From TrEMBL:
<dbReference type="InterPro" id="IPR000859">
    <property type="entry name" value="CUB_dom"/>
</dbReference>
<dbReference type="InterPro" id="IPR001506">
    <property type="entry name" value="Peptidase_M12A"/>
</dbReference>
<keyword id="KW-0325">Glycoprotein</keyword>
<dbReference type="Pfam" id="PF01400">
    <property type="entry name" value="Astacin"/>
</dbReference>
<feature type="domain" description="CUB">
    <location>
        <begin position="384"/>
        <end position="501"/>
    </location>
</feature>
<feature type="signal peptide">
    <location>
        <begin position="1"/>
        <end position="19"/>
    </location>
</feature>
<dbReference type="GO" id="GO:0008270">
    <property type="term" value="F:zinc ion binding"/>
</dbReference>
<keyword id="KW-0964">Secreted</keyword>
<keyword id="KW-0378">Hydrolase</keyword>
<keyword id="KW-1015">Disulfide bond</keyword>
<keyword id="KW-0732">Signal</keyword>
<feature type="domain" description="Peptidase M12A">
    <location>
        <begin position="150"/>
        <end position="343"/>
    </location>
</feature>
<dbReference type="InterPro" id="IPR035914">
    <property type="entry name" value="Sperma_CUB_dom_sf"/>
</dbReference>
<protein>
    <recommendedName>
        <fullName>Zinc metalloproteinase</fullName>
    </recommendedName>
</protein>
<keyword id="KW-0865">Zymogen</keyword>
<keyword id="KW-0479">Metal-binding</keyword>
<dbReference type="InterPro" id="IPR024079">
    <property type="entry name" value="MetalloPept_cat_dom_sf"/>
</dbReference>
Length: 521
């Protein structure tokens, strides 16, 4: 009897210790839950993070989640301004999903059960990054700032791959995920000076494998590091995004200057996920490029939603639907070229115009903003499309793009138009019809039409893909407007009208309104 009582007391005592967890600051801590993963899946997940003390990492994530985001709660004024902007957003009726398993990384990872075990839902951090980024949740706030500085000043540059990114495909990877990885790898290789080489024995290498969800380490960690493209990740956005993490990129919505670009609508965010909207603690270098809502590193505007409502509200409302883009933006490409010092490789060569820069793979050619092409970016992008002259008379442009099949092509087919008004005028574009197989989805991930309305044609233009976008009028800042129709599923039909209007007409958006603040490193 006494023995039984002793055993029972021991068990109760053990349970109390377990439930209490780590309570360094006296607060109750929950024990980390790995979503609904099976024991084997947890084992696989932990193994994929073998460069990290996983228990320490997830304990820090739990402490971050426990903070409940009170520190990122918008001020009363911010909230009031946000509510006003929300009132004026179009009330899209979203199209049903084409793939049940695939959507933004956050949704895929929430379903897979890993979202809460990764930084901001899809990033693995090694121990030194845990110290640098989550330091205050591991060690307390005292020396966190010092560590953040160290992260930028010494760790950050060493976390690059140099000339070659070595990788190999684990047999666990599905054929689809392997094929899309190859497309994304070719994209990053052709757009930068980084060479990608398949090699399973290189000292530093990435193993592409099928884990739970989509995630990657940030930058080169050293040795073998894992990049997971699990079920729901076999799409270009996911592959290109995770490779960008492996190359060293963080998220657009965690840029230190993101408060100039978005307001986090904390009311709609799952309480345990609010911490994911903290800015990256490092003073990340954005190379003086504006916040681009069309960045491949920008999450969709319902990421970590508790109720289906929007979790990020753009401060520039016309760009609300750009969040969650399926294509790598020109500024993403330009920033990666800065990050790997590719631009410095061309000391002479082509004179690039319209915002293009010399292609480090052939300095006599340029990498051009979308809509532009030719050796120096002075031409319209080749293929489907036309250069059009706007006059004061209204003209109609009908665009048909895509094939009539339900094949979900990995990358977009595009039709590029350049609408030119006389030098001192502006261009007015009116969306008259969006028809065919309409896919009204966050980020216009299957199809849409983009209007580059500011004078900065490097910047992702305003994207439309919903029926209630019809009737929208856009007035450009300058006299040239690239209009790009893009499609990768079924067919799309767009009708727009355009005409030249006097320069006194108010522009929809000006380049100086694009959010950006200079880094204070
Ligand atoms: Zn990510």
């Amino acid at each position: 009897m006494l023995l039984k009582l002793g055993v029972a007391l021991f068990i109760i005592g053990f349970c109390l210790v377990e439930a209490r967890g780590w309570q360094k600051d006296g607060k109750q801590r929950r024990k980390h839950k790995f979503g609904n993963m099976t024991d084997d899946q947890v084992k696989g997940f932990k193994n994929s993070l073998r460069k990290t003390n996983v228990d320490r990492f997830v304990a820090a994530l739990d402490r971050l989640a426990d903070k409940n985001g009170t520190d990122i709660e918008p001020s009363a004024n911010e909230k009031a301004a946000m509510k006003e902007r929300i009132k004026h957003l179009r009330k899209h009726v979203r199209s049903p999903k084409i793939h049940e398993d695939g959507d933004d990384m956050t949704e895929v990872n929430e379903k897979a059960g890993v979202a809460e075990s990764l930084y901001q839902g899809d990033m693995a951090l090694d121990d030194s990054q845990v110290d640098a980024i989550l330091g205050e949740f591991v060690d307390g706030p005292a020396d966190a700032r010092k560590k953040r500085q160290a992260f930028y000043n010494s760790r950050y540059p060493r976390n690059l791959w140099g000339n070659t990114f070595y990788y190999y495909f684990d047999p666990s990877l599905t054929d689809e995920a392997k094929a899309i990885s190859q497309v994304a790898i070719a994209f990053w290789q052709n757009s930068t000076c980084v060479n990608f080489e398949e090699n399973s024995t290189a000292p530093n290498r990435v193993r592409f494998f099928k884990g739970q969800g989509c995630y990657s380490y940030v930058g080169m960690i050293g040795g073998e590091q894992d990049l997971s493209l699990g079920s729901g990740c076999q799409y270009f956005r996911q592959a290109a995004h995770e490779i960008a993490h492996a190359l060293g990129f963080f998220h657009e919505q965690s840029r230190y200057d993101r408060d100039t670009a978005i307001t986090v609508n904390t009311e709609n965010v799952k309480p345990e996920s609010v911490g994911n909207y903290r800015e990256t603690e490092t003073r990340n270098n954005n190379y003086n490029m504006p916040y681009d809502y069309g960045s491949i590193m920008q999450y969709a505007d319902t990421s970590f939603t508790a109720n289906g409502g929007k979790t990020m509200i753009s401060k520039v409302p016309v760009y609300q639907d750009n969040m969650g883009s399926q294509s790598v933006s020109f500024y993403d490409i330009s920033m990666m070229n800065e990050h790997y010092q590719c631009k410095q490789k061309c000391t002479s060569g082509a004179t690039c115009v319209n915002g293009g820069f010399r292609n480090s793979r052939n300095c006599n050619t340029c990498i051009c903003p979308s809509g532009y092409g030719g050796a120096t970016c002075s031409d319209r992008a080749p293929g489907c499309g036309a250069t059009l002259t706007a006059t004061s008379a209204t003209q109609t442009l009908n665009i048909t793009i895509g094939v009539r099949t339900s094949v979900d092509y990995p990358t977009f087919e595009t039709c590029n138009y350049l609408i030119k008004a006389p030098a001192s005028n502006k261009v007015e574009v009116v969306l008259r019809a969006i028809a065919g197989n309409v896919q009204c989805r966050a980020g216009c991930i299957y199809k849409g039409i983009e209007v580059k309305a500011t004078n900065d044609h490097r910047y992702t233009g305003i994207r439309y893909c919903c029926s209630d976008d019809v009737g929208t009028t856009i007035v450009s800042e300058g006299n040239i407007v690239p209009v790009i129709a893009f499609n990768r599923y079924h067919q799309s039909n767009y009708t727009v009208t355009y005409r030249s209007v006097p320069s006194s007409t108010a522009s929809t958006i000006l380049a100086i309104q694009l959010p950006m603040s200079k880094p204070t490193l």
